[in-house]
Sequence to fold (38 residues):
Amino acid sequence: MSILIMPVNGIFDVFDMLSIYIIYKLIVSNNTWLIMRK
Fold:
């Protein structure tokens, strides 16, 4: 079972990192856009 569970956990870790990275990039790009607008 652990052999089956480990890759799934690794995949979910990658998805978590990707989602956090995408949200971070969206926030940063929105902040820079607001700063440039001012």
Notes: The radius of gyration is 17 Å. The chain has a mean pLDDT of 79. The chain has one helix and no strands.
